[in-house]
Design brief:
The protein is α/β, with parallel strands linked by helices. The chain folds into 2 domains: 19-48 and 154-327, Rossmann fold; 50-153, Rossmann fold, CATH 3.40.50. It is 40% helix and 14% strand. The protein contains 12 helices and 9 strands. The protein has helices at 23-28, 50-63, 78-90, 108-115, 132-141, 156-175, 191-202, 223-238, 265-278, 287-299, 319-322, 324-327; strands spanning 19-21, 33-38, 68-73, 93-98, 119-122, 146-148, 182-187, 208-213, 308-313. The protein has a 5-stranded mixed beta sheet. Helix 3 (78-90) links the parallel strand 3 and strand 4 (93-98). The model has no long low-confidence stretch (mean pLDDT 95). Bound molecules: pyridoxal-5'-phosphate. Pyridoxal-5'-phosphate binds at residues 48-49, 78-79, 152, 154, 186-193, 283, 286-287, 314-316.
């Protein structure tokens, strides 16, 4: 880990992403001051939080002399779409292992991954990258040097993208003469959350994170355990002092009951609300669920009045097209 640093990254995106007030929505939720961090504008094939992680992961692959990236995800994975785009920029081959069976029609992120040049393997019921090692062996036999990017890009190297993001935020807050009391965001594979947690301590910001869980726990290891493990690595690298426990990184699990990618009235009404007050599009799987959670917190007055609240928009726009049939019922 010694040769890894916050400066060791391959430029892929447009940074800093804008940080601005949600003026119209703040009028409606008038006891609060609402802001948004626009990681839907990170560039790299329509943006999203993975650009930050991939800057570090791709650099690491290049440092190791690799010519091929392998990663896995759902067919509508934003992570996979952005990974293929990053590979295109860096001149690397990209193999995606996508759960399920090949659909007749390619749409949303799957279509974009295809356009971006992914070598796609549909892996049926093996939905969590179980086939990565066998594909890697096969490719290495044919002379390729492979670098495996974990699910969601959420290892320590990927998380560095969000450690660095806190530095970016701190500079913007200083420029705008602002303090942020809370950050709400969508948390799933844990890398974003771990990076933000490490970054807040490292750059000495007192902001409280409120990670909204997106998918019901499927594996035996919880996201909190993954986040704590990543934070441990961060403590070692950055010599952090704080001791983190499960409760310090606990995700909010009040909004995930429908399951991953199941679009409910909550997500639909939230997409509509933000689109029609601020002209900003959320995605139906991650950011609308998290934004709904934030609005629910405000409606239930779980947050102190007059707080400054930041929603960290983590992208995901292309999924709207895949879910078009479910979303088109949004009429008023
Ligand atoms: C749009 C979007 N937001 C949030 C997340 C969650 O980020 P993380 O996996 O780092 O928890 C993802 C992960 O795929 C995502 O695609």
């Amino acid at each position: 880990m010694n040769n890894i640093s916050l400066n060791s990254k391959f430029n892929l995106g447009f940074f800093p992403t804008p940080l601005h007030s949600l003026k119209n929505l703040s009028k409606k939720y008038s006891e609060y001051n609402l802001f948004i961090k626009r990681d839907d504008n990170t560039g790299l094939a329509s943006g999203g939080n993975k650009t930050r992680k991939l800057e570090y992961l791709i650099q690491e692959a290049l440092n190791n002399g690799c010519d091929t990236i392998i990663t896995a995800g759902a067919q509508q994975s934003n992570h996979c779409r952005q990974t293929v785009a990053a590979c295109a920029v860096a001149g690397l081959d990209c193999h995606l292992l996508l759960g399920g069976y090949e659909p007749e029609k390619y749409d949303g992120n799957l279509l974009l991954s295809h356009l971006l040049g992914a070598k796609i393997h549909f892996t049926g019921e093996n939905r969590k990258g179980e086939d990565i090692e066998s594909l890697k062996s096969e490719l290495e036999l044919s002379g390729k040097k492979c670098f495996v990017v974990p699910y969601g890009g959420s290892n320590f190297i990927g998380a560095l993208g969000f450690v660095n993001a806190v530095k970016e935020l701190k500079d913007q807050l200083a420029e705008q003469n602002l303090i942020m009391d809370y950050i709400f965001f969508a948390s799933s594979s844990g890398g974003t959350q771990a990076g933000l947690t490490i970054g807040l301590e490292l750059f000495d910001l007192k902001t409280k994170l409120i990670p909204i869980n997106i998918d019901k726990e499927m594996s035996t290891i919880s996201t909190e355990e993954i986040v704590l493990d990543l934070i441990d690595k961060g403590k070692e690298m950055f010599e952090l002092k704080k001791n983190y426990q499960f409760k310090d990184v606990a995700l909010v699990r009040d909004y995930d009951k429908a399951g991953y990618g199941v679009i409910t009235e909550n997500e639909k009404s939230t997409i509509k609300e933000l689109a029609r007050t601020e002209g900003i599009l959320l995605d139906p799987v991650y950011t609308a669920r998290a934004f709904f959670g934030m609005l629910d917190y405000l409606n239930l007055k779980k947050i102190k009045p007059n707080s400054n609240i930041l929603f960290w928009h983590t992208g995901g726009l292309p999924a709207n097209f895949y879910y078009a049939d479910k979303l088109k019922g949004i009429t008023n």
